[in-house]
Task: inverse folding
């Protein structure tokens, strides 16, 4: 599958480290005291308890990978979880894991070479990935409880980039991605909020052998015409790409061929 390197875009490592702690504690706060059996519409097979278990387990697994600086795909995802017997205690269990995760991130050289399933084969990949896993699931929990989530615009814009940079490699656990092809169609996703930089735009080209994220155009370069484009706030674009929103919603300004968008979203959910 054709790809183009964009790994230089990430935010400073300390930004991820601090944001992970903040988002994890916020997730725990949202879930604490809520009915653990509450269904999570964005993750239809899960309850809030199962979502909390997923978030806590994933963070502990990522931490184990970082501690070992693994150099090849792990054969097992088994780690010591210390999961409480009562689901009502899962929120506290998630929060209790924060100091350990923070220590691992603090003690890890973000430039250290290690295996990652995405583009960037360095430890920093896992910090960036952990943040957006946690942030998106925090939003899932809030929406399951009927709350309106608040997402930092700068983090959201970086989350859009992280999603699109790594999507070509996601076939490992999202096989439909490997079947996303086209005949040269270009899709554009553009931020319209000032904090995300209204000129921030990502373009993806669908080709017969796969798809690729196109290099960023210079500030003075005229962008090539896109067959389909979606414009919206960075936070809305992030949730759109993760399948938490629909481009049909009024939050988005859509132009071009909707069949191209339908083809994209039919193959990119994970």
Result:
């Amino acid at each position: 599958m054709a790809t183009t390197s964009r790994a230089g875009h990430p935010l400073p490592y300390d930004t991820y480290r601090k944001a992970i702690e903040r988002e994890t504690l916020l997730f725990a706060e949202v879930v604490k005291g809520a009915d653990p059996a509450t269904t999570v519409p964005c993750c239809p097979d899960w309850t809030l308890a199962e979502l909390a278990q997923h978030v806590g387990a994933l963070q502990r697994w990522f931490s184990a990978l970082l501690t070992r600086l693994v150099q090849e795909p792990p054969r097992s995802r088994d780690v010591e979880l210390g999961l409480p017997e009562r689901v009502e205690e899962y929120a506290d269990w998630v929060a209790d894991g924060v100091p350990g995760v923070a220590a691992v991130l603090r003690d890890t050289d973000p430039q250290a070479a290690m295996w990652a399933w995405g583009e960037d084969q360095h430890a920093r990949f896992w910090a960036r990935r952990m943040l957006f896993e946690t942030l998106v699931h925090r939003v899932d929990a809030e929406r399951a409880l009927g709350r309106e989530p608040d997402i930092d615009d700068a983090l959201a814009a970086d989350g859009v980039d992280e999603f699109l940079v790594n999507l070509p490699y996601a076939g490992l656990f999202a096989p439909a991605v490997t079947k996303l092809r086209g005949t040269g169609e270009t899709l554009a996703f553009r931020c319209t909020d000032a904090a995300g930089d209204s000129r921030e735009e990502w373009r993806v080209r669908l080709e017969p052998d796969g798809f690729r994220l196109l290099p960023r155009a210079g500030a003075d370069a005229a962008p090539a015409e896109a067959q389909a484009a979606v414009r919206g706030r960075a936070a809305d674009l992030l949730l759109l790409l993760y399948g938490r929103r629909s481009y049909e919603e009024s939050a988005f300004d859509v132009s071009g061929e909707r069949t191209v968008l339908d083809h994209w979203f039919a193959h990119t959910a994970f």
Observations:
- The radius of gyration is 19 Å.
- The chain has two domains: 13-150, 157-267.
- The helical segments are 13-31, 48-68, 90-96, 98-107, 124-144, 153-166, 234-241, 258-267.
